[in-house]
């Protein structure tokens, strides 16, 4: 038995138990620029697999002067993100001179993990091309060779829950203008809510509390918030990282009152803003233009910078 780079190689008279790939005119793979060949599917341990052969070495790993041979799990992309398949496997190459097999496996007998993000595993230095092409070795005879595989599923593991955070590289800012007519007659209401508007695939509303909200009630200030229009539609594990700008427009002098903040929105934290955004007496003052002809303009700018969802 030969041990090298955590790989063991030994000779076996027994053929591979699960799959054999016979290749005739092997040299034409390279001549026809076939860098990677995937076998048909075979079943072992309740899962479907493929052999993946790199005739001139795995180029993605800069492997040279070797044949690379891998095992691939079919349908790994459909696995749940928390699921892992632990496997021990052996890969085979027929010695046609002696009618036995070169067997390659992990030297320490370690289990290899297959999952949604890792569907392929094997040996990049399966055999040196110099040895493979040596007639006396018997691996390539009359341009024909035989590879094989044995796959033993040891256990299946569910790792638990997980999440995926996706940040937006070129985040788009959405602007919404809310004009409130007859605003003076609405200042006695507890809360005034805009119509829903879209920003970053989500629906939002601006919420104006003329008498204040929470600890801001009775302070003389009104409260201004931006809220998810229907937080129940957001999964419990989801979060939205946003930059929010809220603005009361001065329609006379452009002396706008602006508030800016960053926060995470979620199903449980669906409304964020300012308890004391502006004094109500200043808002309704005659010398400024926040209320003009009994109308005010409120603006919201929403930039979604990142989204957290459950792994799927």
From TrEMBL:
It comes from the Eukaryota. Residues 16-151, 173-302 form the MATH domain. CDD domains: MATH (cd00121). Pfam families: MATH_2 (PF22486). PANTHER family: ANKYRIN REPEAT-CONTAINING PROTEIN-RELATED, TRAF-LIKE FAMILY PROTEIN. This is MATH domain-containing protein. It comes from Lupinus angustifolius (Narrow-leaved blue lupine).
């Amino acid at each position: 038995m030969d041990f090298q780079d955590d790989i063991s190689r030994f000779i076996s008279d027994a053929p591979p138990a699960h799959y054999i790939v016979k290749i005739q005119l092997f040299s034409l793979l390279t001549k026809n620029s076939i860098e990677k060949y995937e076998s048909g599917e075979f079943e072992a341990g309740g899962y479907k697999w493929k052999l993946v052969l790199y005739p001139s070495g795995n180029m993605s790993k800069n492997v040279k002067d070797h044949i690379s041979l891998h095992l691939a799990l079919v349908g790994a992309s459909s696995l749940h993100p928390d699921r892992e398949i632990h496997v021990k496997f052996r890969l085979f190459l027929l010695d046609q001179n002696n009618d036995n097999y070169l067997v390659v496996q992990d030297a320490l007998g370690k289990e290899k993990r297959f999952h949604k993000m890792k569907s392929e595993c094997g040996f990049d230095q399966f055999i040196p091309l110099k040895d493979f092409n040596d007639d006396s070795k018997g691996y390539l005879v009359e341009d024909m060779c035989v590879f094989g595989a044995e796959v033993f599923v040891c256990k299946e593991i569910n790792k638990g829950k997980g999440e995926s955070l996706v940040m937006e590289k070129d985040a788009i800012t959405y602007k919404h203008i809310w004009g409130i007519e007859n605003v003076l007659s609405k200042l006695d209401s507890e809360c005034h809510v805009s119509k829903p508007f879209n920003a970053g695939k989500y629906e939002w509303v601006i919420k104006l509390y003329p008498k204040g909200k929470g600890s801001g009630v009775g302070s003389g200030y009104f409260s201004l918030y931006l809220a998810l229009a229907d937080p129940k539609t957001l999964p419990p594990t989801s979060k939205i990282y946003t930059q929010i700008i809220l603005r009361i427009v001065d329609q006379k002098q452009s002396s706008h009152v602006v508030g800016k903040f960053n926060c995470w929105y979620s199903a449980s934290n669906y409304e964020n803003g300012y308890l004391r955004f502006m004094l109500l007496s200043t808002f309704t003052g005659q010398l400024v233009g926040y209320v003009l002809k009994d109308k005010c303009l409120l603006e919201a700018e929403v930039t979604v910078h990142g989204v957290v969802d459950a792994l799927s």
